Amino acid sequence: MGDRNAAGVGEDVTDALPSGPEVADITGAQVRRTLEKLSVEETREKTPATGLTEPSSVGTTTSRSTISVHSQFSTGKVQEPPNSLETAPVSTMASVHGQENLQSQTSLQSSKEGKQQMTTKGQTEPGSSTTHQDLYHMYNMNHPRRGLAIVINNKDFDKKTKQKVRTGTDIDADSLFKQLTNLDFDVQMNDNLSCEDMKSVLREAASADHSNADCVLVAILSHGEEKKVYGTDGMVDIADLAEYFNGVNCKSLIGKPKIFIIQACQGSKLMEGVDMPDAVGFYSTEQNLLSMPPQTQTLPSEADFLYFYSSTPGYFAWRNQAKGSWSIQSLCAVLKEHGKSGIEIMQILTRVNRTVATQFESHTKDKKMDRKKQMPCIMSMLTKELYFTPKNL
Q: What is the pLDDT of residues 174-185, one digit of tens each?
């Protein structure tokens, strides 16, 4: 996969469209699939809407002024790297933001929750005294194999695409490799694939026999826009890539989870932050009694897909050039802490959503770019609950 290098506090960038000045590659010792501590001191970058051209004034900044770090947890001073935009034309900007160690954030409640997980009404921890009724609502995750995880990490792009190097994406790829391996996936890493190569890799994976596997997972790290991601030579529809795994094209995955993780911009809008008043959750004790369905079922061909997008449709996704992206690093931190702890996948992803929503915020001298946020998006067609029960390998 090439060098996985990072040093110091990198600059935040967005995985969107035609970008600004190129940022020099980070140099250092080669790193192979290793996960450094998950603190993310962020500095940001921006991207444009499709078809916008970049003014020549953008991209000439070479100053390295020192500006304040802003976060909800710490303040300090960092040396600002050369400005870099991977998207739309904007005025020259400098952006830095900091964040408390993600690992400590996700582990904050682990000691309290460890003894209380899956004890609410109607829930039992997988592998314990699970009833037949409970098993009916859970995916079977007791096959011999967890399944294949395909990671496509697109960092470098053809000149014709006008996309800049995605510095920092190797950190995400390394983190995913470690956490997915820890969840017992057979991880297949792929670097810098063209659109046709992306299709070929996924087509081949879908044609394999998944009969003895629990599920399949695909993670795509690239530039993008709404409903599309970039290969090294252009864009491809996410739906076209997922189609290889539906019930029509991949019979051995019928009724099994098909998980897609998309780290790419979904548009060119910046998300504002809003003040949140004190609030408490609520729950309902109402029970809907449903009759048991017949033994033979017909499922929709698009059933059992789960998509986790790094950003809400229409908005930027942020990536730190030295520490990785907000969403992937948050996902890996939560998976490390809770992946095998008996928490259902939607709860895991909801915790990731909250981490990204509350622990990250941009800070820049350009007021238009100051205090911007990111909100990941979960789209589920799952028909059962999904738990990554440990494998006895």
A: 999 999 999 999
Q: For strands 318-320 and 12-14, give the pairing.
A: antiparallel
363 is catalytic: no
Q: Looking at residue 130, what is its pLDDT?
A: 59
Taking residue 51's Cβ as centre, other Cβ atoms within 10 Å add up to: 7
| Entry pTM | 0.70
Residue of 195, 215, 250, 265 with catalytic role = 265
Residue 170 backbone phi and psi in degrees, to 5: -65, -30
Beta strands in the chain (DSSP E): 12-14, 66-70, 75-79, 148-153, 186-191, 216-221, 224-225, 228-231, 234-237, 258-263, 267-269, 271-272, 305-309, 314-315, 318-320, 324-325, 372-373, 377-380
344 backbone φψ class: left, alpha, beta (φ>0; ψ -120 to 50): beta
In tens, the pLDDT along 239-252 reads 999 999 999 999 99
What's the pLDDT tens digit per position in 77-93? 333 333 333 333 333 33
Q: Which of 70, 210, 223, 338 is catalytic?
A: 223
